[in-house]
Input
Amino acid sequence: MNPQSILTLFDDNALRAMGPLLALAAGALLVLLAGIVPILGSARGLIVMATLGVTAALQIDHWRDPIGPVLDATYMADKGTAAFGLMFVAATLLAWLYSVHYYKEDRPFQGEHDFLMLVTPLGMTMMAGAQDLLVFFVGLEVLSIPLYALAAFRRNRLRSVEAGMKYFLLGAFAAAFFLYGAGLIYMASGSVTFSDLRGAATHSPLFQAGVALVMASVFFKVSVFPFHLWVPDVYEGSPTPVTALMATGTKAAAFAFLLNAAFLIPPVQSTLVVAIAVITMAVGNLGALMQKDVKRMLAYSGIAHAGTILLVLAGYMNGDILRGAAFDAAVFYLGAYVFTAAGAFGLLAVLEQSDHPVTTFESLKGLAQRRPYVAAAMTLFMLSLGGIPATGGFLGKWFVFSVSYRSGFVAATILGALLSVVGMAYYLRVIVAMYMQPESKDAGPREAQAPGLPMACATAVCVVFVIAMGVMPNLFLDRLP
Amino acid sequence: MAEVFFYALSALAVLFALGVVLAKSPMMSVLNLLGSFFCLSVIYLLAGFQFMAAAQILVYAGAILVLFLFVIMLLNLGDISAHSTGFLGALRSTGAKIGVAVAVAIGLALLISVNLGMLGLKPAESLPDGIDGMTGIATELFGRYALPFEAVSVLLLATMVAVVVLAKRQRPGTDARKS
Output
């Protein structure tokens, strides 16, 4: 490309495609300014909500009128990116709403917290729209670095600092893997843009080694076996609203990239992907059975869910006919998971803030008497995570298993369905603790407080979406690509 | 002539790299690292990558190593040979063995695969305006990669805020409890 032709890259389409990213960046800067400009200071919450609202509006605009590849095919603004972009906005908004009244001694840093939280969807959107390994990598870092800090945000708690440290060290290794892999891919093919890689010599050993390294790094982010060991510790130690963001947003963003980059993996390797998916489901579900802490249990359940979506990826790689169905299934599953998991983690944040500082099964006993609404909402989220009909989680599982069955992975589908049944055991344990077990006597003092309006709103949104996705899936599916 | 230089510099770079790992005092490690970076940058020059050579010196030797030195001087680490006994020492020697084994394995694998032509490597095609032309780099950076280039500025800002949040001391009037 010659220097004169650069200007043709930045046409109206490119600027429109950049809209959501620019809105997020501008909003994040305003939040930072709110810390020093007195007029803005009291309006910080308003700025966060307005930013996310504008971003959502721009993404809906992209959804209705997709733009296609821009900036020399390094970024794609199509319906898929818009669907994922809306998911990221929802995840960030929910995590932020749950965080408003969550922190106590770290309250003075809430402004920085909100800034960091608002930067993450920028990275996620770049990851979802990336058609180039370089764009993806920068997006990954824009997502990861704020999350490292947010994981360690409660600096006076050893567990939080430990979580941040673990996440940072392992994340740095994963980033190095990615760069090394991208370097090998460049060496073998002379490009890191997907449109060039589609026709490249994918069978050369250098190329495949590069793809393996890149995939290892992304599998780390989506917490798939054997790169899942960090998940329980980091999810448990991080502040719960941040855990909600990590569990939903990061996972969705990394899976969006996996769907875009699935063509890099040779189709013959789909058996390997299926094997990884089944092992991940087994590790997640069996690990969750043994947990005493609900947050750790949800972390293992997140691993199991990542395995389930990986089944779709295998189907996506395998056949051209199923590609559309597989994409829809993955997006629907992730959408349902965003609202369910954000709601479940969020309710734990509510309990931590107002009821009991720890989140063991023990602390949930008798919750139905103390907090009937919280217990009812938690029950709905557990049923959705387990895949009980009339919830979004059920239909997500249904679509995923039907795609993996039709792509010929019958044994894996049956195993996956059986493992989901195993999963019901620990989701039901939460419900049993809340409704059928009396409160233990030495439970310690409780600070009975109302959860506050933001948390109540966030929970209401989650409940509405989980039920709506389960009862009226056409509302969402018709709009999918 | 260039080949002689290349092999001499490569050997020197490897020696310096070994020095980084084997040096007893952290200060010597840093100085060895500096030597290794210099050798690498001269290799870049030999290959015709002037910009990369300059960036290597400016960024790594100029900025990052100075930071390393600051940290080492501020922390006043002194001699770390005391750590090389007991469990940590055993861990270090095991780590060294594994490291040597991995290095030898990678070297052998590369030697074999390059000699057998398995990697299908071709010499790099030169860019239209010559190898490592600044125009080429600028066109890529401000053209098709404008999005990640601009996003890096957000990334740096976020990193800065993240570091401040984590490093800033607790403000007075709040309790510092541990769990």
